Amino acid sequence: MTTLTHSSDTLTRDALAVLQPGFRGTTAPDWLLRRIGEGLTSVGLFGRNITSPAQLTALTAQLRAERDDVLVAIDEEGGDVTRLEVRDGSSFPGNYALGSVDDVDLTRAVARELGGRLAACGVNLNWAPSADVNSDVNNPVIGVRSFGADPALVSRHTAAYVEGLQSAGVAACTKHFPGHGDTAVDSHHALPRIDVDFDTLHARELAPFRSAIAAGSKSVMSAHILLSALDPNRPATLSPQIVTGLLREELGFDGLIVTDGIEMQAIASTYGIERGSVLAIAAGVDAICVGGGLADEETVLRLRDALVDAVREGELPEERLADAAARVRALADWTLRVRGASGPGAAVQEGTAPGIGSNGTGSGIGLVAARRALRVTGTIEPLQEAPYVASFAPVANIAVGDETPWGVAAELAALLPGTGTGTYGGENTAAEVLAAAGRRRIVAVVRDIHRHPWMAAVLDGMLAARPDTAVVEMGVNHAEPTGSPHIATYGAARVCGRAAAEALTGRGA
Description:
The protein is of the alpha/beta class. The protein is 40% helix and 11% strand. It contains 18 helices and 16 strands. The strands form four sheets. It has a six-stranded parallel sheet. The longest helix has 25 residues, at 318-342. It starts with 7 loop residues before the first helix and ends with a helix. The relative contact order is 0.13.
């Protein structure tokens, strides 16, 4: 039982302790440092906060100068969702590629190296891995972020990822509980609903989370989704039946429970962020993630005051807020002890992005994994001359973002100087692509072509005119293979593009 002092200062410190806010800029603003001094225990980092390993290391040191045990969190899944390498593309393939290889030792090793690079820069909490079973192939937000559609496969790789990440001293945050894979709606925009029976949820959605808990995942992130079989009225993040009854009591999870971004429309447009935060803590959540969109002091103060007022008005038990804050501090203490046991992180060479060797090739385990994930249908006749790369670009979901480059053009250009490139959308035609390519061999790069009829139509027109067009699928590999050859990379990380370029040119390792 938590001992309460019932003081205004204690309430305020506990309310700040359960927030995981973001901020803008590459150095910590004064308001953030001041709030850390007042009890804020966690800070969330995004791509906008990172320019280099040296800068990131300096930023985390700045935060720790205010509080040595501060939790510095990041959304670094590798693959399509990267913050460390947001401007270059990730040196690690994502979950879908790792699941396609289905080597748990490889997954564990990739997660360990990724965790080591986070730890070296002072990051100690990663909002990863995604344990969602991607059972809806048209899922607009999970897709390649999932290890796959088979619950057993997702379960064993989720456990391996958790083990690898935490062996490097970085706490894992397994998401999105109780499973975001069977949704056709992105919770950034609206509230998804899953209407399957209780037995299906237990056998499919919950299996990877059981494995993550057994592997010792230090935290779990809740999803803003409505599961009618578990709670027909409230999304998981706000549901006592799901957060406390299912996760805490039935599954026996004793670590930190974190919300997905509270400003996502699934919560914000229905409950508002203040009301949503109060309901989440009352339901059994311990920490409120906010800052992907709302990244200012006013947001932190609004949420702090909403929690304090809810306690004073009897809507939120003081014991529940105190217990939530205690769990946050317990995880912060774990990271401090792990860091003390292992000593300072490895030095990071200034000017070298995490995961990229000084020669810029992206060599290492990430590239090894990307090469192993590659699937080729048909026969490759290696390109001898610079081709024309036509990239078909769907609108990126918010989790992935549109600032991270993807494709094979840059990697092909490094191997075949003079490679041409163009980016095409739903308004373009096959004739336009053919005209731009001229006599050059065409490499068509697509992403989730099964979800985009316009993309399939343009590609069909190209293949009718130029059947020797090589097709590279960098999303979910669901459509029937077309092209000569067809290459599936199982993700759009930079190393996936490198592996495809090597295969197309015959210049791989």
